[in-house]
Every structure is written in C-alpha cells, then in structure tokens.
Design goal:
T3SS_substrate_exporter, 69% helix, single chain, 13 helices, flagellum, alpha+beta, elongated, name from scop, 4-stranded mixed β-sheet, two-stranded antiparallel ribbon, cell projection
C-alpha cells in the first residue's frame, strides 16, 4: 500500500519538460517568458538616443512656442475662437516636439517584445477571471518566492541606478557650483548634457541587469511549465485517443472491411485453397484490369467463411496449396496478380471455364 502511494506521488511530481503541445497552448493564453526590464531598458535607451540626436531641434521648437505665446498669444482677446486656436496651434507644436519620442517608444516596445517572444497576439489575458480578484490567491502571490525575488530585484535596481546617479553628480559637482556665474542657456545646455550622460549610464546598467532578469524569467517559466509523467500520459491519450476507443474503432473498421470483402466473394471466378487453412478469391474482368485480381483472401476461420459463401453461390473451389500460400503472402485484396503467377492462375481459370462449360 505504501509503495503504491509512493509511486502515485512520484507520478504526480512535475519533473518533466513541457511538451510542444502544452507550450503552444500556454502561448495562446499569453503565458510566455518575458522580462519587463528588457522593455524598459530598450525604451529608455532609444528615447535617450533620440533626445541626444534631436535635442537641439526639440529645444528650438520649445523656445519658439514660448516666444510666440508671450509675444503673440498674450495680446489676443480672450474669446472662444482664440482659445480654440491657441489650443489647436499649441497642441500641434507640442506634437512636433514629443511625437518623435512617442513614436520611438512604440518602436522600442514592439522591438523588445519581438526579440523576446516573437509575434504574439492574444486576447486571453483580457478575459474576466474571478481568480484574478481572489484575495487568497492574491495573498499567496504577495508572499510567494517570486514576489520576494521581484522585491530584491527592485531594490538592486534602486541601489545600482542610485549609485550611478550619485557618481555622475559627484563628478560634475564643481561645474554645477559654477553654474551660478553662467547664463541660462549655458546652464540649460550643461544640465541637459549631464542628464543625458546620467540617463544613458543608468540605462546601460539597467540593460545589463535585464539580461539576468530575462534569464531568471526563462528559468521560472520553464519551472512552472514542467509536467508530471501522468500529465504527459493524459496529454498523449487526448492527442492520440484512448487506446480502448481506438481498438474499438479499428475492430469496427475490420468488420466493415470484412463485410465488404465477403460481399465480393459471390462475384469471384474461383476460390484457390490449400485446402483448409488458406482461401484466395480470384476474378478476371478485362473491363476492370488487364490481369486477374484478388477480391478476397483469408486464413482459418475467414478461409472457411469464404469457402462457405462460395459454395452457397456456386463459385468453384480449386485446391492448389503452393499457389494459395504464395498469393496470400504476395497479393493484397484488390491488387492484380503479379506476373510470376500469370501461368499458374491462367491454368486454374482455364480449368474453371472448361468445367463451367461442361455444366
């Protein structure tokens, strides 16, 4: 009894890698190995590169918008029409400034996801599920090992990014103190450059951490995808079908095939036997084939049934042991007689035709 329980326990233990079928089913549900840190790092990196390349363009457009606002818009009469026009023109200018960043953010997000999981579109995660608002399941997630790992990971990111930020500020501390003696444009240019250096450095560090996070996400995903030996057996049954049902279907197919074969026996020209164990029903119809062909064959019980049906329908039976055995092993039902048996079968058919003419 104890041994049986132990075997059941090990059979239910999830130690096997997930099958392709399960992976495909989970992927359709949106369950894939993905690191959000990779998405964040790519988004920040692309956005910072864009700001480094088009920073002056964005600054010029922003200054032009402020200048136009404080020289033109401030003198306009406040009416419904002017407010709408200010809003429309201001929105268009802001779109020109932030539009490239929004576009690059979308491109970076799509690219990072394609790199990790390829193309995947599913609405399964959007479906309403009561388990998602189950307080017990929520508490389990909060106090799970994964939650602890995420907490430590977040703490590590704060420490690393904080250290990088502090280091860069410390490097430029003397220049920052001297900004009090510079004009606004020089100060703005300096702080923009320092912010860009700080952002790119922090993003590179975040990208480095994202590689480890992606490796962990893959490990955790594979661990959660594991299957027990019983799961694999059940999946095989569902895929291939229950062996009992399959055997019944095959048995049914054999019965149908047997009935079809037996229905052709009355149309045969001759039954070649050995005489008790083998029976081969042969027919020659020049409109259907260029040579005689087998319409039925069988051994033992089936051979007996073939002879019985042949006798009931006045189909001649001829004993030829070597020919019966050779035809049974060489020719399938519906196939034409091979060339090496032409002479032997022709002699049998000639004998049958002579006997039928005498009758």
């Amino acid at each position: 009894m104890q041994l049986k329980l132990d075997l059941q326990f090990f059979a239910g233990e999830k130690t096997e890698k997930a099958t392709p079928k399960k992976r495909n089913e989970e992927r359709k549900k949106g369950k894939v190995a993905k690191s959000q840190d990779v998405n964040t790092a790519f988004l920040l990196l692309f956005a910072l590169i864009l700001m480094a390349v088009f920073g002056s363009f964005m600054k010029d457009n922003m200054l032009a918008l402020f200048q136009h606002s404080f020289t033109e818009y401030i003198n306009w009469e406040l009416t419904e029409k002017t407010v709408f026009q200010i809003f429309l023109e201001g929105s268009m200018e802001l779109l020109k400034i932030v539009g490239p960043i929004m576009l690059i953010a979308v491109i970076a997000g799509v690219a990072s996801n394609l790199m990790q999981i390829g193309f995947l579109f599913t609405t399964e995660p959007l479906k309403f599920d009561l388990k998602k608002i189950d307080p017990i399941q929520g508490a389990k997630r909060i106090f799970s090992l994964r939650a602890l790992v995420e907490l430590l990971k977040s703490f590590l990111k704060i420490v690393v990014i904080g250290a990088i930020t502090f280091t860069i500020i410390w490097m430029f501390k003397d220049d920052m103190l001297m900004m009090a003696f510079k004009n606004a444009e020089s100060a703005l240019s300096f702080f923009g450059r320092v912010t860009l250096i700080m952002g790119i450095s922090a993003t590179v560090a975040l990208l480095f951490l994202a590689i480890f996070d992606y490796a962990y996400q893959r490990y955790d995903f594979e661990k959660n995808m594991r299957m027990s030996k019983q799961d694999i057996k059940d999946e095989y049954k569902n895929t291939e079908g229950d062996p009992l049902i399959k055997s019944k279907i095959k048995e049914k197919q054999r019965q149908i095939s047997m009935r079809r074969m037996m229905s052709e026996i009355p149309n045969a020209d001759v039954i070649i036997t050995n005489p008790t164990h083998y029976a081969i029903a042969v027919k020659y119809d020049e409109n259907k084939a260029s040579a005689p062909y087998v319409v039925g064959k069988g051994v033992d019980h089936i051979a007996f049934k073939i002879r019985e049906i042949a006798k009931a329908n006045n189909v001649m039976t001829v004993e030829n042991r070597p020919l019966a055995r050779s035809l049974y092993s060489s020719v399938e039902i519906g196939d034409v007689i091979p060339e090496e048996f032409y002479q032997a079968v022709a002699e049998v058919l000639a004998y049958v035709y002579r006997m039928e003419k005498k009758v």
